[in-house]
Amino acid sequence: HYLKLLTKLKPKLDAHGVRTVAIGYEEIGLDNFQEGNFFGGELFIDYGKTAHSTLGFTRLNMFTGIYTMLKSKMWQATNEAKKDGVEGLTIGDRFQNGGMLAVSAGGKDVLLKYIQSGPEEHMSFEDVFKALGIEDSVPDEAMAPAPQCDTDVCKLK
Question: Which Pfam families is this protein grouped with (predicted)?
């Protein structure tokens, strides 16, 4: 769902010379991903998860994965994705976390490095814009409502 929201920002990112690239780790679900237009940038497959490992993107184990699936914040994120037409696949490696890396033109400087602690966690687009030096505001259509969570329940404001 995050990549679909990021795609809504692509025209603004393009206007600022930002290249958007997603790196997956398997072809399972790739056809559905492409047919659903869930990402408007370039796609690469890293079959050995070399990039994921190098960047420090961790993989949940079975226990942390089950715990994550039971968290209210995960259910809220799943429901928001469904409202936007994004359905989760039940095949493939569902335990691999990801993140975001932004580098300067030419790759000289790291502008942003974000590592997910769980699949429901994502960096705010406001923070992404700030790291990239984009002073424009993030369009409302690219914003997912922020949940307000306590220890047991999440709700939308």
Answer: AhpC-TSA_2
